Amino acid sequence: MDFVDARVCVVVSAQFGWTPLHWAAESGDVEIVAALLQAGVNTEAANRVLGWTPLYMAARSGHVEAVTVLLQAGADKEAVIEGGQTTLHRAAEDGAEEAVAALLQAGANKEAGNKDGETPLHRAAQYGHEPAIRTLLQAGANKEAAAKDGGTPLHRAAQKGHVEAVAALLRAGANTEAATKGGATPLHVASQKGHENAIGALLRAGANKDAANEVRPGGGGVGGGGGVSAIKPCDMGQDGWTPLHMAAQKGHVEAVATLLQAGANKDAANEDGWTPLHVAAQEWQGAVVAALLRAGANKEAADKVRPGGGVGWEGAAVLAAVVGAW
């Protein structure tokens, strides 16, 4: 290919700041990338809207040869773009395992935090990319790194139900009892989302099936962490929620069954005396109410809330109506 005229276009950019090197990097055309670099293009040209560099585009597309050529030309592997992410963050979340390996070999910071304090391992776990997770772990990435919400990579994988990612982190010895600022363990967040396979993997790894959350200052609710919304409805109390409470409140009957089969305490009470049965009844989760009753949950359990104190009812008097409607 004849690149005699390459120098003519090296400074050309479209309306949003895309240069020829951006497009060549994204397409993975190493020959064109090399020609542009030889012509003296700016390796750090950043798109005006997103801030993406050519290296970032090559990595997100998984073009490891283009990544290597750009790195050899001195492209900044630590350039920060949208959301405080580095190129390694993006390669990890897109599952571009070979690009991840090339960046790590070039010395990219495997513990860099984005705006949420998430490392590349968090991002790989969030999107369930088990090969990228293995590559990062083999390079020594911190499996217990805590984001700003306190969530670890295991929280991220569990919350999304990525069972292979969960398994990879567990094999590496990830802490099943790590808690977010909202006091949620990985089992809490998996239960809240109803991911019974992830729940099973965590239970087999020894996760505490009756772990009770305790919200830390600034925790923002029971489910705070990992992109998981706070689960405290009405005035049910913030502390003392178990995984079974979470699964029951959201109506995840299969998750409830998995936890009950593992021996979860069906009558565990939170700080306001609410059991999983109270929570399921309050939320009109009839299938869960029925499952808990079949398992022998105490239908006479009395909460601690007094008239005018928020919930406005004691015990499980609503059960008949709930089961009848279901």
From TrEMBL:
Protein name: Uncharacterized protein
Gene3D superfamilies on file: Ankyrin repeat-containing domain
Pfam families associated with the record: Ank_2
UniProt keyword Repeat, yes or no: yes
SMART domains: ANK
Start and stop residues of the ANK repeats: 16-48, 50-82, 83-115, 116-148, 149-181, 182-214, 239-271, 272-304
Keywords: ANK repeat, Repeat
Keyword Repeat: yes
Organism classification: Eukaryota, Viridiplantae, Chlorophyta, core chlorophytes, Chlorophyceae
